[in-house]
């Protein structure tokens, strides 16, 4: 319902075939995102740093494909988008790398390859394993979290700023992004990322929350 209503509201589309939804998280509640993309008929690319979560969703049949190669992910995205086939592709890697690659594609080809975007990392708990910084691999991140939580926190905040910068560039070209109620925008704001709504007070963000804007 969230993905379908996002399409209806932001894209004015009842049919999401050929539309691309990019997000992250295949763990707990976020595990349903791959299934949602296919039910909605769109192309879903979902990043996840934990291979165990990816394999679990693939085994369930909720996730159609898995890849750790961004070149392959972009190629599959283009194929599925052109053919208008439903696809759920799990990218085994950090979503910031995925967003920045999409910016690179926009900068080099002029193509905006994503229509809808969101995030379901556990940003209500960003400094204790809910969000892993792009600067480190998953295992490295876990080790740093254990050995030097202060440095881990600093890297998470740097990562959130990069995360938002990439989303902002794509959103400026027409991609629609929403917050999934996971405190992503709040923690990004605390990290110093550019998420404030221009001309509004500090409690308002430039991107909507699905609770009020989509489901409401």
From TrEMBL:
Pfam families documented for this protein: Urocanase
Residues of the Urocanase Rossmann-like domain: 2-214
Gene Ontology biological process terms, A to Z: L-histidine catabolic process
GO molecular function annotation: urocanate hydratase activity
SUPFAM superfamilies: Urocanase
InterPro entries linked: Urocanase-like (IPR023637), Urocanase_central_sf (IPR038364), Urocanase_Rossmann-like (IPR035085), Urocanase_sf (IPR036190)
Family annotation (Gene3D superfamilies): Urocanase like domains (3.40.50.10730)
Segment forming the signal sequence: none
The name this protein goes by in its record: HUTU hydratase
Organism: Acrocephalus arundinaceus (Great reed-warbler)
Recorded name of the encoding gene: Uroc1
């Amino acid at each position: 319902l969230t993905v379908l209503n996002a399409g209806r509201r932001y894209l004015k589309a009842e049919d999401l075939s050929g539309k691309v939804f990019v997000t992250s998280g295949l763990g707990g509640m976020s595990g349903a995102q791959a299934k949602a993309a296919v039910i909605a008929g769109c192309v879903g690319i979902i990043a996840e740093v934990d291979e165990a979560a990816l394999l679990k969703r693939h085994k369930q049949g909720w996730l159609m494909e898995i890849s750790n190669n961004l070149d392959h992910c972009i190629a599959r995205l283009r194929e599925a988008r052109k053919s208008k086939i439903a696809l759920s592709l799990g990218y085994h890697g950090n979503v910031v790398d995925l967003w920045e690659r999409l910016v690179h594609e926009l900068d080099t080809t002029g193509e905006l390859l994503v229509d809808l975007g969101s995030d379901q990392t556990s940003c209500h708990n960003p400094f204790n394993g809910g969000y892993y910084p792009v600067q480190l691999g998953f295992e490295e991140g876990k080790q740093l979290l254990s050995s030097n939580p202060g440095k881990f926190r600093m890297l998470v905040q740097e990562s959130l700023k990069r995360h938002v910068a990439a989303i902002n560039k794509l959103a400026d070209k027409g991609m629609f992004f929403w917050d999934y109620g996971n405190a992503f925008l709040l923690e990004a704001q605390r990290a110093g990322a550019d998420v404030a709504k221009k001309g509004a007070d500090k409690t308002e963000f430039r991107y909507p929350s699905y609770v009020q804007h989509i489901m409401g």
